[in-house]
Amino acid sequence: MVMIMTFTCGAGHGGHSDCASNIAAEIECCKVTEGTLTSTDCEILPGDAGEMLSCAPKGMFLQGVCGSFNNTSCFGSSHNIRCCKYFLDETITGTPNRRMYPVEVGIEPSTNGYDSRCSSGKIAVGRCASGATPGCSVDYTLITCAHGAPCIDCPLT
Questions:
Q1: Over the stretch 46-79, which tens digit does the pLDDT of each residue have?
Q2: Alpha-carbon gap, residue 37 to 28, rounded angstroms
Q3: In Å, what is the CA distance from 80 to each residue of 46, 84, 86, 96, 129?
Q4: Distance CA 103, CA 31 (A)
Q5: Spatial contact of 100 and 61, defined as CB atoms under 8 Å apart
Q6: Which value, in Å, is the radius of gyration of the alpha carbons in the chain?
Q7: Phi and psi torsions of 21, nearest 5°
Q8: d(C-alpha 126, C-alpha 142), whole Å
Q9: Residue 25: its pLDDT value, please?
Q10: Domain residue extents for the chain
Q11: How much is the pTM?
C-alpha cells in the first residue's frame, strides 16, 4: 500500500535533535481513503544543501527523502528525494488505474525552521534541505506541496 507524504523535518546547524534523536530527516505519511494508490517509475533526484528539489515538473509526487548532518551521506549528495508516478483506483467512481498529476504547486512555510507540513488536502512534491546554515530561504527545511488531480482523458497506463 502506497501512502502520501505530507510532512518533513530536517536537522539544521548540525544538530542531532532538531527532528528526533540522531535523525537527519523525518517524514510523515497518510493513508489514502478514496481508493487504492499505487506508484511506478520512481527515481532519485540528488541535491546540494539549500537546493529545492521538485518532482512536480516530471508529473510525480514525493515518496521519500534522505537528509544528512552537514555532509554528503545521501549517495554523495547533501540530500535527495524519491519521486514516483501515482495511480489511483477510485472506489467512488470505480475508475481503475487513473494517473495522478500535481496541480497548484506551492512552497509551504516552516513552523520553526525545521518542520514543514502540507496544507490540508495537499501532497508533497518537493523539498529543500540545508546544511549548517539556513539555506532554504530563512529555514533549514521547506516542503513543496500540490493538489493531486486525476487525469480525465489520459490512457489508463
A1: 999 999 999 999 999 999 999 887 788 898 999 9
A2: 17
A3: 4, 13, 19, 31, 9
A4: 20
A5: yes
A6: 16
A7: -55, 120
A8: 8
A9: 86
A10: 4-150
A11: 0.88
